[in-house]
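I had to read the description of the data format several times before I understood it. In essence, backbone conformation is discretised, so a fold becomes a row of integers matching the chain in length. I therefore recommend that a typical entry be quoted early in the introduction. For illustration, here is how one protein appears when written out as sequence plus structure tokens.

***
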Amino acid sequence: MIEFPERKASSKGEKLAQRLSGILALLHQGDHLDKHLLADRFQVDVRTIERDLAVRLDGIVERNAQGRWQLMHVARGTIPARHLNEYARLSGTQYLFPDSSLPYLLQQLDKPGNRRTMQVQPAASEDLGATTPYFARLETAIDQCFECRFEYKGKVRRVQPYRLIHKQGIWYLAATEGERLKNFSVALVTALEVDDGCRFSPKPEHHDYIDGKDDVWFAPDTVEVVLRVAPVAAHYFTRRALLPKQRHCVHAGGALTVTSQISHPQQLLPVVRYWLPHVRIVQPTQWHEHLVSELQQALEIWGAPGTGN
């Protein structure tokens, strides 16, 4: 909640004006207000607050089902300020700026575009195109615990949907097929049907598993991977996590040992390939050998006569 500075009022009318403006400011943040807390905040009797809300702000505020006071729908001219923080959490941008406080964000939004001192380059995201209408239906299915049926990669699937997840520009549906938790690329879903006559009971352990993941590779077990990173690339692994559940240890000279929990080799190999020759897979050794074999095959193909290389 934003705190609003108050100065000492010189008259009864001025005290009333300050109190009403303070109440309205709190309401415009989207707060649902309790009359007893308001009385304590403004150091007045509860009956005074009741008159403020029921008489002086009549037509502006209303009591909700929980007995608290909120702005009437017709009086909500803007998005409540607290929703900006909720939007940042929803979109995964709460740590984007060095200061995540609401006053800082409002200050940045208040600046004209050509006078802003920072610019955020948009991340590339897929164009969902014809699958966009599926979102509302999938959200309903998740919210109401309805099973779904759709075609995916040439097969008909019947699933129990749990969550829509955005990762690196791609939207995925987390759902169970049979007893196994899987992810499905929303863009590849076709012929979606929501079965509103067939409800399921979500399993808490599936929600816990999804909440604990920082990727969309679902597997019952993970493999601990150990990498050796040369000093020239170390900074790129320490400034942000490039791998799930990443931890690192700095050695003399600036080299790193990086450990991670990997569900599938394809989570790891593209990252290692990108940073070659500065990254080496130490464990598991069979993954290192597989990568070397792939590189040797690629070199043979690229160097073969008639390939145009």
Q: What stands out?
A: The chain has a mean pLDDT of 86. The longest strand covers residues 155-167. The chain has four domains: 12-75, 82-115, 129-212, 223-302.
